[in-house]
Amino acid sequence: MVEWCGSYLDEYRGDRGGSGSKEGRSGQRWTPPGANQVKINVDAGVKQGGHCSGLGCVARDRAGVVRYAAATVVQQALPPLQLELMAICRGLQLGIQQRYEQFSIESDCLQAVNLIQKKEDGCRDIDGLLHQIRSLMCHVNFVGISFVFREANRVAHELANYALVHKASAIWIGVIPPCAHQAVLIDEPNPV
């Protein structure tokens, strides 16, 4: 077990000899997708002992323009991994529903990304959700899913926290969500 935990931490740090620390990651930012692609960042917000959770999702193009953003409140307490998987599922559904020519998903939950990519065995309570995600990933316009550190997932994180704190859901189409405005600015090529 200790050996597994050590290898899990090494993978989380990206095998960069400790650059997984917050100090080493502070300069990381969101990176734009390839030409004619949309990148969808997702996150979940969980408050221990709370009776609700939040999901955040933002779709941006190569220029960093917010095409779609959502903060969704989940009116029940669920395990963090299940919520992160729900956020990924919502991101996939968004890409398909919006008919993006090509889209990818980024999440700051390494365990969820590994489970989806079959690097780890699933648990019975999330197997149905994993199956749904893997089915959605078969869509012709889906490019891939990847893990990023939270510093490169700021906007989705802010949206998930908005839903969690305000216990409200909201959608923004073609505009920057006011609750994540600063995070979007930080991600621009010449941040404020």
TrEMBL record:
- Region entry Disordered, spans: 14-34
> Which sequence ranges are marked TM in the entry?
none
In which domain of life is the source organism classified?
A: Eukaryota
Here the segments flagged for biased composition (Basic and acidic residues) are 14-26
Q: In this record, what's one Pfam family? A: RVT_3
Q: Give GO MF terms, alphabetically.
A: nucleic acid binding; RNA-DNA hybrid ribonuclease activity
Q: Taking every annotated instance into account, which residue ranges of this chain make up the domain RNase H type-1?
A: 41-163
| Protein name (database record) | RNase H type-1 domain-containing protein
